[in-house]
Sequence to fold (430 residues):
Amino acid sequence: MEEVIVIGAGLAGSECALSLAKHGIKVKLYEMKPQKMSPAHHNTNFCELVCSNTFKNTSLDFATGLLKEELMVLDSEVLKSAKACAVSAGDALAVDRLKFSEDVTNKLKNNKNIEIINKEVTKIDLTKPTIIATGPLTSDSLAKEIEKITGEQLYFYDALAPIVDYESVDISKAFLGDRFNPDSKDYINCPLTKEEYTNFWQELTKAERVKLKDFEQEKNFEGCLPVEVMAKRDFDVLRCGPMKPFKQKDKNEMPFAILQLRKENELGTMYNMVGFQTNLTYPEQKRVFSLVPALKNVKFLRYGAMHRNSFINAPKFLTSTFSLKNHPNIFIAGQLSGVEGYVESVASGLLCSIFMLQYMGIMQKNRLSINTALGALCNYLVSASEHNFQPMHINWGLIAPIDAPKSVKKQEMVKRALTEIKEFKKVWIS
Ligand SMILES: Cc1cc2nc3c(=O)[nH]c(=O)nc-3n(C[C@H](O)[C@H](O)[C@H](O)COP(=O)(O)OP(=O)(O)OC[C@H]3O[C@@H](n4cnc5c(N)ncnc54)[C@H](O)[C@@H]3O)c2cc1C
Fold:
């Protein structure tokens, strides 16, 4: 029986292993947990959601809804577990994270084609069919090994925003509403005058940052820049971004800037500083952010922090089937391949299993076009610019447009995509 090595039992690796096993492949699944935990993983089960518990919207008005629908057509085991462990969250697919990981772990452990090896992988055997799905927090030794194979650094950084205690916000110096809906009460807006903003901006740009010891160079993800990095670019950058001002309902004067707070939990006891991901030292976060009048005495429940987000320069190193250009038997799946997000990681795990089966001659060679969300993700990885490659969420902009009236455009794109996926599945199972 053919054998494939899958490294990492996260969202991508779990999906990939289950899909390969379903097609009769023997899988050796390596996972370093529980012996070694990344800074974000805490649960001993596999397929752990490290941050939010949502797989985003299920509505077919959203590209992420279409991606999930396509994955269901292709029988995604991880998504089936997510649906089985769903908690109510409107149109979003949110899950009970513990039940979800347990469900996927049981599927992996009970599958006779999957052998689980709890061990950190530090070397890649370049002669064996292998899928590397070790995620954005790939262990250092393996990251170095991948860098040796590709000859390029893998590290980038994402940052987390602070969370504050609602009770400590001075509501008399703030107002409720959001930029797009003045009647909404979802955001607490903390306004600043020109003088207050100028002082805040000056302090922010010279505040002390945490030194990154492990690596010489900080490489930020453009979509998630630390607020102090944005501020240093220009005086007005924040006012055109996370601090963009708007008028309070029934008031005439326009604040010079606004810092927004968004509910972090159902109870409304914790609020997130929107777009304020940061790598300032904790005392500096307290000092600088308290210069916003409504936050003068604010209590921080969690300070902002930076975390690593490793990914490969996909357009440079990967083929359209996620294998390394100079090692066609080595595939990269999940966030490490340059997709961004839980659902996208599951999707790339499923795609990698299909491409591995095609590579092994077990499945007929067949590709998905950019009429589908899955094909569009593959296309992005190989067609994006290699000079400033950034991981990407699925979005309508990646999928081929359709010639149809605006009012039915998305509906038609969904219909076209699902027809194509169903055709693809016929070849897949033959
Ligand atoms: C802190 C953080 C928060 C995030 N929050 C969100 C969010 O809220 N929503 C969202 O959609 N996306 C989020 N992401 C992005 C991404 O969707 C998730 O990281 C997702 O889990 C990626 O899936 P994956 O399968 O690629 O990696 P993972 O799910 O991280 O799985 C990788 C697995 O590989 C194992 N591993 C690592 N190195 C080795 C090794 N050398 N040998 C053996 N095993 C190894 C790890 O222990 C882990 O189990 C976040 C990322 C980070 C880092």
